[in-house]
Amino acid sequence: MSAWLLASGDFVPVGGMDTANHAFASYLARRNGADVHLVAHRVAPELASHRGVHVHHVPRPLGVHSFGEPLLTTVATRRSREVLRSGGHVMANGGNVNAGDVTWTHYVHAAYTPSAAGVLNATLVAARHRKYVAAERRALTQARLVICNSDRTVHDVINHIGVDRARVRRIYYGIDAVRFHDRTDPRAAKSRLGYDPQIPIVLFVGALGDRRKGFDVVFEAWQSVCRRPDWDAHLLVVGSGAELRNWRIRASTIGPSGRLTFLGYRTDVAELMQAADLLVHPARYEAYGLAVHEALCSGLPAIVSAGAGIAERMPETLSSLLVHDVDSPDELATRLSCWREGAAEFREAARAAGAMLRMRSWDDMSREIAGAAES
Predict the structure, then answer these.
(1) 194 in helix, strand or coil?
(2) Given strand 234-238, what is the order of strands in its sheet?
(3) How far apart are alpha carbons 300 and 276 in whole angstroms?
(4) Do 156 and 214 belong to one domain?
(5) Residue 17 shares a structural domain with residue 77
(6) How far apart are CA 215 and CA 203, in angstroms?
(7) Predicted pLDDT at 255
(8) In CATH, what number is assigned to the domain containing residue 217?
């Protein structure tokens, strides 16, 4: 069986892209007879311990992502030549490596121009975006196979980058159905986490480094619904980034007192989803949206952008929770009110959708990817 080289920042079962990368690497590691080379800053210990897995560790100076990227590209490019010469396969994420083999596209930089608050932060975000778009275009246009995580992503790599449709394959993510399972009693989960079991919890999960995930719209909409005397829900915000401190300051001065808590970076998202009553995810751009996928698999309804890749997999029974104008706090406030008025019905619809999504595992996804690359 041919060797594989995978290149990405992290192979850990936390986060969107990282979880998918970890799942595919784990699948390859469990197949007999193949060496798996991982070029990365961080690899989960249980994955690194597999027989046949070779970790090529790349430092991330000062813990800064942009400092580590050039080093990762250099090491992966050198190692990929060795693997390809031996008849193996190379797969990298987006523009990480231009090896001419397989590119797994979790996010299309050319499809969305991010914005951020603050002159310095906005300048850094814009500079990184230009670099990512150029690298992405080089890698995707020269790849023999481009794996996309949704039909939305397929559309974007064809129309924004110019990739030939014949070289593109859509393969949806899977799920860990043990970790993300249908909830039995959200009230018990709330009590375990120290929250009042009688108060509905709305959960936001997303990076706060720029405005892509739409937290600025969530904040304005939340202020609006909290002005209603009958509004009883509490918002938990999971995520970190350059704007987190400013959001905390703003919430403490003009935000809805007592109705919003910033939790920062967390690794217990699965447990939080067991306790929550709704996920809110009105991202301005979302190639897929694994957090929404995980929420549905947990029986948790989600307010999500209609243009997100995950929206392709949501049933008609949840269509009234889709946000069409992602820049409108008023529309999001309306969706929040809609959910609160029909919470029980939306919960049952989410449970049905989650039961379908849990039927596709990470191994199912990985088997399709390996088959497409090796055929």
Answers:
(1) coil
(2) 260-264, 234-238, 201-205, 278-281, 302-305, 322-323
(3) 7
(4) no
(5) yes
(6) 11
(7) 61
(8) 3.40.50.2000
